[in-house]
Design brief:
homodimer, alpha/beta, Rossmann fold, 2 domains, 8-stranded mixed β-sheet, 6-stranded antiparallel β-sheet, 12 helices, 14 strands, 31% helix, DNA-binding, DNA-binding (chains A, B), transferase (chains A, B), S-adenosyl-L-methionine (chains A, B), site-specific DNA-methyltransferase (adenine-specific) activity (chains A, B)
Chain lengths: 368, 368
DNA sequence: GGCTCCGGTGAATCTCGCC
DNA sequence: AGGCGAGATTCACCGGAGC
C-alpha cells in the first residue's frame, strides 16, 4: 500500500464502514474511488429506510397514504446519497445503480440531473422470478441497472474484449440473464432465516466488475448489506469499501468476505484489447529492415498498390502519406486501418503487414 | 357506433388528426379513451457521424423532431403532452410509453409525478439490434416500455389468461423478445427510402393491445408516425385515434391502414379457460406474424380444420383451446401433440407448425 | 426452383493521445 | 483547449443477383 500523502490520502480499503452512507462517504477523500455500486432501498413504502434532509426519520405509514409526499421524500434521499457518491468518485470513475420500476426512473433522472453520463441501462433477466400471484399484471421478471460515468468526458473503464469473450465471441448485450440468489449462496442469519431480503447474485457482480473495473481498483458500495460486492471484488482482486448501517449485516458480511479466496493473478488477466498494446510506428518496420524502401505493397483486395519510402510513408498514383492516409485515399473512405489494409509478398504468399507489427510487439513483451 | 350524447361525445374514431399532439388531445373530450400508446421523441443527442467498421455510414436519427435544447426543455415537452394525455384518458384507462435510456427515466418520473400508477416496466429485447461499432459500450439491445394506469385505484384492463395462453401456459413475463421492424413490414416512402426512422414492429403492438385492451376499445396514439398502432388496432378490432404533425407520415399511415383487413370476430375472442402447460409458446408465432389470426390449420391427416385466434388459441366446430386441446378433442383422444398434429399451407404445400417452432428455437439458441 | 453469395442496414448519447 | 492524425471497430437478418 502506498504511504499516505496529501495527494493520496488513506482509504479504508477492504473494510466495512458503519453509520449513514452519506456521512461515511463524506468522510472519504474526494475523487478517490474508481467505481460505485449502489443498491439503494427500492420500496417507497419502506419508510423506515428513508431519511429527511435533516436526517430525521420519515413518519411511519399511517392510514392516509400520500404517494406524492413519499416520492418527494425518496427524491431527497436519492439526492443526498448521490451527491456524496459524485464527490467521492474519481473524475474517470463510474457508477452502477440497480433498481426496479418503483425507484429506477427517479434514480435515472437524478443521475442525469447531477451530470452523470449514462453509458448503458442493463436489464437483469431473472430465470426464476417470483410469479405474480394475483394474476393482475405481468410477472416482474427483471431489474434495471444503470451504468453511468461521472461526466460526459470521463474516460471510463470498459473491458470490451473480456465481455466479448465471455459471450462466445460476440459483443455483450445490454440484457443479462441470471438466476436469483438462492441455495447455498443465500446467506442465513443466526436464526436460520434468510439474512437479507434482496441479496444479489454473485454472478451479476462478477460480470459487472469484470466489465467495468481493473484489478487493484477500488469499488465502493454505500448500501453494502451482506456484502456481495465485497465478496466478489475480493475474489477478483479488486479492493472494496462497504458502508452499512445495520450491525447484523456488517457482521455477516465480514465473516463472508473473510472466507473468500482471491483468484490467482493469472486467472485475473483478461483478453487485452489492441488499443492497450504499445504503438508501433510503421517506419520502424523499415528501419529494422523487415520491409525494404522501394518495395511494393498491395491492398488486401488486390486492387491497389503503393511503394514504401525510406521515411516510412507510402507513395503511389500521385498520393503520398501514411499507410492509413494512402489506404483511405484509394478507397475513398473517411479512414482506413493501414495495418490490416496493406499486404506484402514473402515466399509467394500475400502477408498482412500487421503480422510484422505483431512480431515487434512480441519482442517488446519478452524484454519486460 | 353509439349515437352521440352529452355523456358520450363524438370521438374522431379511426382517423388521423393533424397538428400538435397537445392541442389535438385537448380538443378531445376528457375521460374518453381506453388506452394511450405513446412513442415520443427519445432526445438522442447524437454528436457526430458514426461509421461501421466497413466505413459505411450509419443513418442517424437526426430528424428535427428529436432535437431539444436541454434536458429541461425535454422535461417541459414531456409534462405538456403527458398532462393532456392524463386528461383525455378514462379513469380506468392506462398508458404505455416506450423509450430508451436517453429519455425513459425522465418519462417514468413524470408519470409518477402526475399520479399515474406504474403497473409494470416491460423490456423489449431485440433479437437483431445494431451492434456497438466502436466497442466502447454494451450493445444497446433493448428498449423499455412503461405500463401505467391513470391512478392507483384504476380498474385497468389486463387479459391475464390470454397472455398466459400466448406464453404456452405460463405467466407472461416483463421481458418480451421481438425482432426489429425490417423487410417488407418496413414502410417505404415515395422515394423508396425507409419512410420513418423509428417504425415499431407490429408484433410488439399486437402483444401490447391483446394484453391491455378489449375489442371495441379506443386506443389513442399521440405520436402516430406511420401508424403501426392504427394498423394493429384495426386488425384486432380496436378503434384508434392517431395524432401526427407530419403530412407525409399521415398520408402513408392512412394508406397503410386502409389495406388492413380486420380479423373475424371469432378470432378476437380471448381465452378465459385454463390450459395445460406445453413448452414453446404457440402465441409467439401469431405475434410475430408467422401465422395470421383467422388463418386455417389442418390436421396432418387432412380430416380436421381449425382457425387461429389472435391470442394464440384455436377454434373450430364448437371447440376452443390450445393447439393441443383442440387436436385432442377432434381425435377423441386424451391428449395430442398440437405441434406435430397441425399443419398450415405455404406456397401450395402443407407444412407442420413445428417447423415454425424450430425456427424460434434456433433464434433462442443463438441468442444465449 | 432452390441454393449460395454478397450487399445493405437498424432509435447510437460509439477514440484517444499528442502537440 | 482544440486540432490533427493514428488506428480500432459489427451482428442478425433481409433481399436480390447469380448459378
Amino acid at each position: 500500500m502506498a504511504r499516505p500523502t496529501p495527494e493520496a490520502p488513506v482509504l479504508p480499503l477492504d473494510t466495512i464502514m458503519s453509520g449513514d452512507c452519506v456521512a461515511a462517504m463524506n468522510a472519504l477523500p474526494e475523487n478517490s474511488v474508481d467505481l460505485i455500486f449502489a443498491d439503494p432501498p427500492y420500496n417507497l413504502q419502506l419508510r423506515g429506510e428513508l431519511h429527511r434532509p435533516d436526517n430525521s426519520m420519515v413518519d411511519a405509514v399511517d392510514d392516509h397514504w400520500d404517494q406524492f409526499e413519499s416520492l418527494k421524500a425518496y427524491d431527497h434521499f436519492t439526492d443526498r446519497w448521490m451527491k456524496a457518491a459524485h464527490r467521492v468518485l474519481k473524475p474517470d470513475g463510474a457508477i452502477w445503480v440497480i433498481g426496479s420500476y418503483h425507484n429506477i426512473f427517479r434514480v435515472g433522472a437524478s443521475l442525469q440531473d447531477r451530470g452523470f453520463w449514462i453509458l448503458n441501462d442493463v436489464v437483469w433477466r431473472k430465470t426464476n422470478p417470483m410469479p405474480n400471484f394475483r394474476g393482475k399484471r405481468l410477472t416482474n421478471a427483471h431489474e434495471t441497472m444503470i451504468w453511468a460515468s461521472k461526466s460526459e468526458s470521463s474516460k471510463y473503464t470498459f473491458n470490451y474484449e473480456a465481455m466479448k469473450a465471455a459471450n462466445d465471441g460476440v459483443q455483450m448485450r445490454s440484457d443479462w440473464t441470471f438466476p436469483l440468489c438462492t441455495g447455498h449462496e443465500r446467506l442465513k442469519n443466526a436464526r436460520g432465516e434468510k439474512a437479507h431480503p434482496t441479496q444479489k447474485p454473485e454472478a451479476l457482480l462478477h460480470r459487472l466488475l469484470v466489465a467495468t473495473t481493473n484489478p487493484g481498483d477500488v469499488v465502493l458500495d454505500p448500501f453494502f448489506g451482506t456484502g456481495t460486492t465485497g465478496a466478489v471484488a475480493t475474489m477478483l482482486g479488486r479492493h472494496f469499501i462497504g458502508i452499512e448501517r445495520e450491525e447484523e449485516y456488517r457482521q455477516l458480511a465480514a465473516e463472508r468476505i473473510a472466507k473468500v479466496r482471491p483468484l490467482e493473478r493469472e486467472a485475473l488477466e483478461t483478453t487485452t484489447s489492441k488499443r492497450a498494446e504499445p504503438r508501433v510506428p510503421f517506419g520502424q518496420l523499415v528501419e529494422r529492415g523487415m520491409l525494404r524502401p522501394g518495395e511494393e505493397l498491395r491492398s488486401g483486395n488486390g486492387r491497389h498498390r503503393a511503394k514504401i519510402r525510406a521515411d516510412g510513408t507510402l507513395t503511389g498514383d500521385g498520393v503520398k502519406g501514411s499507410i492509413h492516409q494512402v489506404g483511405a485515399a484509394y478507397e475513398g473512405a473517411p479512414s482506413c486501418n493501414g495495418w490490416t489494409y496493406w499486404h506484402f509478398r514473402r515466399e509467394g504468399k500475400s502477408v498482412s503487414i500487421d503480422t510484422l507489427r505483431q512480431q515487434i510487439r512480441d519482442e517488446m513483451v519478452k524484454m519486460n
